[in-house]
Amino acid sequence: MLTSSSSRKHLLALLALAATSVFSQQPEPKTPVESPTARMNSAKTIIITRARGSGIPYDVISSALEGWGRFNIVEDRDKADLVIEIATSGGNGGMSFADSSGAYRPGATSRDASDAEITMTVYDAKNKRVLWIGTETARFAMKQTSRENNLVEAAERLALRFHDRIEPPPKNHE
């Protein structure tokens, strides 16, 4: 027969063994998912692609990102940390002009009478996760030069919004 001190020792040993077994069977803690902003901040290389629409926003945003110097721009998706996709939509629905009677004139010019929307989508190049989407609207204008200027201004605003997401401007202490 075991003495009470001997029983206690055996009981403590069994409890220690059981506790060790329980703790060793717990699943390993998952590594936290990196936030989109943290992922964009840690990126070093980007590739810029044009999905559709006008080339003007693509050119403006590409120049802005290149001039920023924050990222190395690469030509190969496999070497990129981020994929930045530029797309322009709208602005291509036609509107035919009619004469004063309301009848359409033969050979009447078709004009684009809708605003153009520029979308910049930033993806993680490795897992294709969307990290940021920004959209700006370029107002419609009748003259080609004015339409192009409006596209440039909207693309500049979009590039600035992305810049400010990565490197927020300092807050004024007034």
Sheet with most strands: 5 strands, mixed
- Residues in β-strands, percent: 15-25%
CATH topology of the domain at 36-93 and 112-166: Rossmann fold
Shape: elongated
The appropriate CATH architecture of the domain at 36-93 and 112-166 is 3-Layer(aba) Sandwich
CATH superfamily of the domain at 36-93 and 112-166: ABC-type transport auxiliary lipoprotein component
Total count of strands: 7
* Helix percentage: 25-40%
SSE inventory with pairings:
Elements (H helix, E strand, L loop, with lengths): L3 H21 L11 H7 L2 E8 L2 H14 L3 E2 L8 E9 L3 E3 L13 E3 L3 E9 L5 E9 L5 H23 L8
Parallel strand pairs: 1-2, 1-3
Antiparallel strand pairs: 3-6, 4-5, 6-7
Give an account of the 3D structure.
Helices cover 37% and strands 25% of the residues. With 174 residues, it is an alpha/beta fold. The chain has a domain at 36-93 and 112-166: ABC-type transport auxiliary lipoprotein component (Rossmann fold), CATH 3.40.50. The strands form two sheets. A five-stranded mixed sheet has the order 2-1-3-6-7, covered by helices on one side. A two-stranded antiparallel ribbon has the order 4-5. Helix 3 (55-68) packs parallel to helix 4. The protein is elongated. The termini are far apart. The model is unreliable at 93-98 (pLDDT under 50).
